[in-house]
Design a protein that fits this description.
The complex is a heterodimer of chains A (about 120) and B (about 725). Chain A is of the alpha/beta class and about 120 residues long. Chain A has one domain (about 1-115): 2-Layer Sandwich (Transcription Regulator spoIIAA). Helices cover about 45% and strands about 30% of the residues of chain A. Chain A has helices at about 25-40, 60-75, 85-95, 105-115; strands at about 1-10, 10-20, 45-50, 55, 75-80, 100-105. In chain A, strands 1, 2, 3, 4, 5 and 6 form a six-stranded mixed sheet that branches. In chain A, a hairpin with a 2-residue loop joins strand 1 and strand 2. Chain B has about 725 residues and is α/β, with parallel strands linked by helices. Chain B folds into three domains: about 10-55 and about 355-460; about 60-345, no CATH class; about 490-715, PPM-type phosphatase domain (Phosphatase 2c, domain 1, 4-Layer Sandwich). In chain B, the strands form seven sheets. In chain B, strands 1, 2, 3, 6, 7, 15 and 16 form a seven-stranded mixed sheet that branches. Chain B has a five-stranded antiparallel sheet with strand order 19-28-27-24-25. Chain B is built from 20 helices and 28 strands. In chain B, helix 5 runs antiparallel to helix 6 (about 130-140) and helix 12 packs parallel to helix 14. The two termini of chain B are about 45 Å apart. In chain B, a hairpin with a 5-residue loop joins strand 24 and strand 25 (about 620). Classes of the chains: A alpha/beta (about 120), B alpha/beta (about 725). Chains A and B meet through helix 2 of A and loops of B.
Chain lengths: ~120, ~725
Amino acid sequence: MKVTSTHQRNTLILTPKGRIDHAAAEAFSVALTPYLADCQSGGNLLILDFSEVEYVSSVGLRALMLAARQVKTQGGKIAIAAPTPLVGEVFEVCRFNLVLSLFDSVDAALANFAVE
Amino acid sequence: MRRWPTLPLNKPRAFAAKLTSRSIGYALLAAFALLLTFAPTAFNFVRLALFDQYQNFSPRESRSQSVVIVAIDEEALAALGQWPWPRNYLAMLIDTIAAAQPAAIGLDLILPEADRTSPGAVAESRPDLSLEVRNILASTRSNDHQLANSLAQTPIVLGAAGFKFKTSTTRDGLRTTPVELQGDMPQLNAYPYVLVSLPEFQAAAKGQGLLSGDPEKGIVRRAAMLANLNNTLTPGLTLEMLRIAHNIPHIRVYANQHGVNSVQIGAQQIPLQGNGEAWVHYSRFSEQRFISALSLLKGEISAEQIKGKMVLIGLTGLGLQDFISTPLGDLRHGVEIHAQLLESIEDGHFLTRPWWMPWLELGVLTAVGLLLIYLISNMHQINLATERRRQERQPGIAPKSAALIALLLFVSLFGSGLVLFVKSGLLFDAASLFIALFCIFASLLASVFIETGRQRNNAEKALQNQRLEAAQLAGELDAARRIQLGTLPVAALAFPGETRFEIAAVLESARQVGGDLYDFFMIDEQRLFFVIGDVAGKGLPASLFMVVTKALTKNGALRGGKNIGEIITLANLEMARENPQMLFVTAIAGILNVESGALELVNAGHDAPWLIASDHTISRINGAGGPPLCMLEDFDYPTQHLQLNTGDSLLLLTDGVTEAMNADAEQYGMGRVNEILQTSDPHPAALITALRDDVRRFVGMTEASDDLTLLALRLKNI
């Protein structure tokens, strides 16, 4: 699983690419792990830019859920931004907005972090 | 099937074995080194045999032809009578030789007693003769006197023989020219007694030398050039002849802590063994070296054949028993030893085994031995590695290459020995080294084979154990799977005689234990409960979680919840309480009133179900739902109300269908599901079979990565 990262002030934007299904979920979790450790109270804010994620399966959802729980315990903040319509539908079906903050775009997520 | 980690081979034992094979190698090496140093004769049988082979391979070429042997042979004995001849015959022979002006004469004979055929002796032994005759005989010059006269005229060296014991004829000294010794008195062959010629011969001769040539295992390879005669340094016949031939007043001997180093005669330096011996490098037998004493006395030999040469007088007659065995063959005449030595010294060709040679051999032994030990014990490791990689049944190639390397080493060992012999006349003992190194090599190779075999056995045992364990575990997992699948209702048997609806379901596990589930049962006379779910995860935890999910939903349904939303909300609450693995389940549950067609649905994060209407229109049922079960503990799941009509079918599936992957990593996808639904018979059993078969065709030989579950139901008659 390919994940690129960019920095904007105190916010780290990760952009995974491809499908997060049964085959890729494990690799996605592994790729995410080092960034999650930094995402804590007073540390980096984390935005997962999902604009290049084509699909998320139930195992992918679990990976995201675990990430969200870890960040929450550490007192950090994490959000998912710009999901594609298909992925957005999956999130909607699962009511994933109750687990993670979802935003239509990266800017919207940044703006939200800035306000808080 | 889970891949079991390969058990590592027993490393400490492998190391111990390597250590053992090495230490055996070291021990053998040390033992041989000690043996070579302190008991060098232990290897004589091979060492001398090798030196003999060197001589056979490369016999000496005689260049100077500076030595002739005057042979008292069969013909001479036949013509002049039995041996010993009257001394006047010998005197005649010597006079004839002397007339041809040889450089020196060596007498390979000892003349310790007076001649009994002298006229005076005859007179004494014949009292029957008249007094007159006896007086004449007694006053006639004796044969011995005549010989002494001849000896005095010629550059002759008499032979003498050293003895370890005293006899009636031995003396404890002989008249020799003094030898000048530079250095300490070396350890030489020591003789306290000596058998010498009559004093008048000793007085007449120019010199005397010892004739000793001690055979080793019957073969004469070395001759004493110097000996210790009653604590006097005494030259051998050969050295003394050289001294006379070169007209040198005395021989100078150089000795050091290793014994004799060399002997100097005039300008010539002759290297000797520490004990004063010289190795004889034999040339092939040559008739030309021999002159018959009879021909000589008859005047048939030209003076040119003798002039300036060193002449040895010796016995060659068959009855006289003076034969020796040499490296080049048996039945060589004893007198030849001196001829061979003289000739090679005159040619400046020496065969030596210097004091440092055993040390060189020890060094070579140690170096090659260590190399062998290093190479083979490492090959051992390489071999084991190869063994592990290939799981070969045959021994690896390493022993073969080890044997090749050893062969090369041995060949070069013997080769260098031969080169040293041919080029420098050095006697390098490759044979003892070969025996020592071969023993080391063989022991190392044997331990490699034994160890390889042992480790292969161990590896096979380990593999067998692994298989056994895997089989046991597989058995347990298989049992778990049977229990898991056993909890699933079988559609065909669940509702015998049911006319209101049809239902069919299938669950195919990807690996041994999966996380999919389905269930259905009648809550009461009219209401059918059904659920399909997919635990996010695989293996045993997912499987157990699936069983829990199934039990809790069933429990909730049978306890009589108000609607499906409430049932699932309660089940979620209970499940979420104890969820250490952070697993969750996407699921769709529903209650269908099979008489009215009223349908309650709840979707917990699952793919939307498919509706195949009686008029074959296909649609997805989106709408009210919630997150997967266990994701949010206190979520209040809403109930979606729908109405089914006669002939309407409902299809629920898990992502094992839509995400089924073929060899090109393509996914089955919703589109293909839709296509099958368009064309298939809408009856649940047929529908499910068609869809499952199409997925199977699609994935081909690719192993399924996730469980696949399908559940279809159809309302037949309202």
